[in-house]
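Sorry to interrupt, but I need a hand with the structure work. Can you supply me with one protein entry, sequence and fold together? No commentary is needed, just the two lines. Leave the record below and I will have a look.
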Amino acid sequence: MENSLKDEINEYSAIIKNIVGSDIIDSNEFYGDIQVTVQNSKIYEVLTKLHNNSLLPFDQLIDITAIDYPDSIPRFEVVYILLSSVSRKRLIVKIRVNEGDLVKSSTGIFKSANWSEREIWDMFGIFFSGHPDLRRLLTDYGFEGHPLRKDFPLTGRVQVKYDPEQSRVVYEPVNLIQEYRDFDFLSPWERPEKENIDNGDNS
């Protein structure tokens, strides 16, 4: 059974490589799903090939998401999760982009990409060129920054409140008592053994 599954995955991987061809930078198998990494400049072409292939069409876009690796170059990874309704196979396509890079919108291939790309723009600041309506989706229009970036402050930069004197909603800098900004990142269960002994903890 294990060899049969492995053969099936290898056959599936070979089909994907045949469809995408030399545009693949890297590929691997993850719990039965094939993951391929391609150049940002090739993403629209690759998605078109996968969508239109007659043997194994990936005709559904399940999701697009992004990951921020602030210490890496390129910094961001954009992940496309595709599904073939014919074979019921999933495929994960990845690209790596730097801050300020343009990613060609895939709304011309998958209409469902519309809101996913808007969410990524809102949360990460990754710009999708050719998108029909690239506005913020989850935050309001006056929001500053992109909340899912690792360098975005946990408390945010501004807060919204209703000002009775002005009879309208206003923005103001976040004002928290300082002790709430001091977070002990070291879990009490992970503190050095010596510290626990010094504190009289013999357990």
